[in-house]
Amino acid sequence: MDSSFDYTQWANTPQQSRSMESLNQLLDATERLLNEDDIANINVQKISAEAGLTVGALYRRFSSKEDLLHALHERFAERMEVLLKTLSQTAKDQKFTARQIVRLFSQQAWGFAAEQKAFLKLTNAFSAVDSKFSERSNRLRTISFELLMPIIMSTSAEFTHPEPEKAVRFFLEMSIATTQFRLESGYKNEYMLEEKDFLEQLELSFINYLGVKPES
């Protein structure tokens, strides 16, 4: 599916298969490093070594480290938008119930987002000094709401909550905030749930909060 984001705009090279392969090698390597270390400790030498490429190859793909970080940030946004569109279309085509929709998004969309420590690190580190990071993050949130609200509200007849639209908006905000908190904490708190349990409880709490009627 198409996306309103395009991470390849930050790269120098034509979109040929070999160029795209090395471009994504560099982005994957940067993401792995960001998941384990602070941005300040990551330089082009470390990124190149992690990707199995030379520093020269990195600069043939990107004009600067900043462009590479923009590409990584935008790649997540692009993948998330495509995933949400795909899930929404699946739920619509297969006429999912409210429970099925909540389960689908909690397991796949929120599960995917919960693994993206690098995206949050980049957002937090650069939003104050480079508006493109904050603008991209805000645009992704808006797109997420625009995609999720209609498909969830299409099953509102199954809700018992007196204000279903307000309830859905609230819970989507809470889901984003909770996922962000877990990423920022690094899952180090001994009282925090494991990923699988967290997603199960997120799904259950959404269903209960909306007052979804039991399936017949």
Task: Give a structural overview.
- The chain has about 220 residues and is mostly helical.
- The protein has 2 domains: about 5-65, Homeodomain-like (Arc Repressor Mutant, subunit A, Orthogonal Bundle); about 65-210, Tetracycline Repressor, domain 2 (Orthogonal Bundle), CATH 1.10.357.
- It has 9 helices and no strands.
- The chain has helices at about 15-35, 45-50, 55-60, 65-95, 100-115, 115-125, 130-155, 165-185, 195-210.
- The protein is elongated, with a radius of gyration of 19 Å.
- The mean pLDDT is about 90.
Task: Reconstruct the topology from this structure.
Layout: H1 17-36, H2 44-51, H3 55-61, H4 65-93, H5 98-114, H6 117-126, H7 131-153, H8 164-185, H9 195-210
Helix pairs in contact: 1-2, 1-4, 1-6, 4-5, 4-6, 4-7, 5-9, 7-8, 8-9
Beta-strand fraction estimate: under 5%
Here the CATH topology of the largest domain equals: Tetracycline Repressor, domain 2
| Main sheet specs | none
The first-level CATH class name of the largest domain: Mainly Alpha
User: Can you count the beta strands?
Assistant: 0
The total domain count is 2
Span from first to last CA? 34 Å
Estimated radius of gyration: 19 Å
Average pLDDT works out at 89
Helicity level: over 70%
- Low-pLDDT sequence parts: none
Shape descriptor:
elongated
Order of helix and strand elements from N to C terminus: HHHHHHHHH
Number of helical runs? 9
- Which structural class matches the secondary elements? mainly alpha
CATH architect. name of the largest domain: Orthogonal Bundle
Chain oligomer state: single chain
